[in-house]
Every structure is written in structure tokens, then in C-alpha cells.
């Protein structure tokens, strides 16, 4: 059972999650089981869990601790055996500090945390994701393109994907719509507005190395970029050198190194493990 906590009106949230008895409120003409009761023996997925109201958070904590629910307007409790998976696109730790989310509920939910790196930090997944979305939209629009052109592939591998997977899905769908059958999808078909035009030269952003680049440096092409390009050093070598230097300067503290590189800790840890640097550091 999937629940988008941000899409349910605040006054109906508890009723949706835990059910209600007849006459519990205006319009409650009959008793109704909530999502937790319907998920009994299975799994409930709470998307955007940070949007739960304080009252709903308290009720959820009781469900997690006691494995029982009480319907709105009811006096009896009902046992439920439910596996709970919660997701959010913002930091629950910060929400706790801001007083927006209960600390005890956070610790109760945080049994087995799974950090999903942003798309820009797992570009090796691009071929499989593109293949998946192409198959989906070829079927939806009853056409079959030849896939992305070489130029399109080069571009998407160097794009920062601020909108993550949803942006990639929309880009591929647009490309399929604008491309005739048996034709390759061009870069112009992928993006409604060229990403280069969307970036102001005065804006700062993350470059492909995961570090902050000033807009003025991008516009001028910065001397350091020219030096790297003319040196023959590969992108992988540059990235590994930056990470090793940041780890050394931070005393092998991943969190501190991540701050120096302008990355989140999970994102840097993912790259360190992928390159083998984290294992080397642990052995030393």
C-alpha cells in the first residue's frame, strides 16, 4: 500500500492512515479501514513522510512501537503486522533540528537507512535507465526510434541532472515525441531549452568533478580548465586526485572531505568506494 503523505489533506491524513468509525466526523457515514489495516500482512510505503502532521506522527509512532492502530473516533485497537518503508527528499535529521519532525519517530524509522545518490553521482546507470525509458515511451507512443545520437549521449553523460530520474524520464519522453520512427534522437529534441542557455554565467554550480565552479570562471573558461585539458590527464584521474587530496586534508574524515568538495557525505562515500580510495584509506 503506497501513501503520498504530501498529497492527502491535513484534516484527512489520520483517517486515511488509521481509518475511522461511523460518525467520527461530518461525512463519516460508515466505518472505514485505514491504509495500515489494509496493509496488514504486507508493506506500507510512506512517501514524503516528513509532511506528516505532529498528531499523525504521534499516532505513527504508536503503530511502530505497539503494532496496533486505533481508528479516528474509535475506542478499540486493532493489531497489525506491517513492514514500513518511508521516504523523503529532504533531511529528516534537519527536520528534527528545525522542530518539524519528532526525534523519537525519526530514530524509530531510521532502523535501516538507504541513501540513494543523485543521478549525477551514478552516471554509469544512464545506459540502463535510458534503455528502460525508451522501451516505455516507444510502447506508449507506438513508434520506435533508433535511440540517442552520439552527440546526445555525450551531452547527457556530462549534464548535471538537477532533476534526477524524473528529469531524465521527461527528457527521454520529449525526445521520443519529437523524433520520427527509425530516426536518432538529437540533443535539440531532448531539451525544450538548451541547458547551456538556462545557466546564467553569474550562477555558481557543481561541475562534473563535483566541486563548485563560479559562473564567471565557466564563461571565461578558467586557466585551470585549459591546463587540465592540455595535460592529457583523464577525468577519472582528476576526480580521484581531488578526492584523495580532500581526504588527506580532512584527516581521512569523509564528512569533512565532502564539505570541502561541496558534496553530501553519501555522494562522496559512493565515489570513494567506487574508485577504491575508501578501501585504501581504511587499510592505511
Coarse shape? flat
Rg to the nearest angstrom?
24 Å
| DSSP summary, beta strand count | 7
Oligomer: single chain
Strand order of the largest sheet: 1-2-5
Structural class: mainly alpha
Unreliable spans are: 197-213, 216-221
By DSSP (H or I, 4+ residues per run), the number of helices equals: 16
Approximately what portion of the residues adopt beta-strand conformation? 5-15%
Share of helix among residues? 40-55%
List the helices and strands in order.
Answer: EHHEHEEEHHHHHHHEEHHHHHH
Mean pLDDT: 83
**Biggest sheet overview:** 3 strands, parallel
Question: What would you say this structure looks like, in words?
Answer:
It is a single chain. This protein has 16 helices and 7 strands. It has 284 residues and is mainly α. The protein is 49% helix and 8% strand.
List keywords for this structure.
284 residues, mainly alpha, 16 helices, 49% helix
How would you summarize the topology of this molecule?
Layout: E1 2-4, H1 13-18, H2 35-38, E2 43-47, H3 54-66, E3 68-70, E4 77-79, E5 83-87, H4 92-97, H5 103-109, H6 126-140, H7 150-158, H8 164-178, H9 187-190, H10 195-198, E6 205-206, E7 212-213, H11 215-220, H12 223-231, H13 235-249, H14 254-261, H15 265-275, H16 277-283
Parallel strand pairs: 1-2, 2-5
Antiparallel strand pairs: 3-4, 6-7
Amino acid at each position: 500500500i503506497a501513501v503520498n503523505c504530501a498529497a492527502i489533506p491535513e484534516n484527512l491524513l489520520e483517517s486515511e492512515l488509521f481509518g475511522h468509525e461511523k460518525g467520527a466526523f461530518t461525512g463519516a457515514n460508515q466505518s472505514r479501514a485505514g491504509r495500515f489495516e489494509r496493509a496488514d500482512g504486507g508493506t506500507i510505503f510512506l512517501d514524503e513522510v516528513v509532511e506528516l502532521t505532529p498528531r499523525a506522527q504521534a499516532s505513527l509512532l504508536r503503530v511502530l512501537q505497539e503494532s496496533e492502530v486505533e481508528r479516528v473516533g474509535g475506542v478499540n485497537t486493532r493489531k497489525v503486522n506491517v513492514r514500513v518503508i518511508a521516504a523523503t527528499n529532504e533531511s529528516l535529521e534537519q527536520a528534527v533540528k528545525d522542530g518539524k519532525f519528532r526525534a523519537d519517530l525519526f530514530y524509530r524509522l531510521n532502523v535501516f537507512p538507504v541513501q540513494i545518490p543523485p543521478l549525477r553521482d551514478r552516471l554509469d546507470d544512464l545506459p540502463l535507465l535510458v534503455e528502460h525509458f525508451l522501451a516505455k515511451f516507444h510502447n506508449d507512443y507506438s513508434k520506435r526510434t533508433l535511440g540517442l545520437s552520439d552527440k546526445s549521449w555525450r551531452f547527457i553523460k556530462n549534464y548535471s541532472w538537477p532533476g534526477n530520474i524524473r528529469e531524465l524520464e521527461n527528457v527521454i519522453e520529449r525526445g521520443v515525441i519529437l523524433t520520427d520512427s527509425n530516426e536518432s534522437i538529437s540533443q535539440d529534441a531532448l531539451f525544450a531549452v538548451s541547458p547551456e542557455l538556462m545557466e546564467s554565467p553569474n550562477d555558481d554550480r557543481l561541475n562534473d568533478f563535483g566541486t563548485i565552479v563560479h559562473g564567471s570562471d565557466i564563461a571565461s573558461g578558467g586557466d585551470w580548465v585549459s591546463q587540465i585539458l592540455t595535460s592529457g590527464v583523464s577525468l577519472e584521474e582528476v576526480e580521484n586526485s581531488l578526492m584523495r587530496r580532500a581526504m588527506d586534508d580532512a584527516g581521512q574524515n569523509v564528512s569533512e572531505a565532502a564539505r570541502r568538495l561541496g558534496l553530501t557525505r553519501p555522494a562522496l562515500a559512493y565515489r570513494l568506494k567506487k574508485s577504491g580510495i575508501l578501501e585504501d584509506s581504511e587499510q592505511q
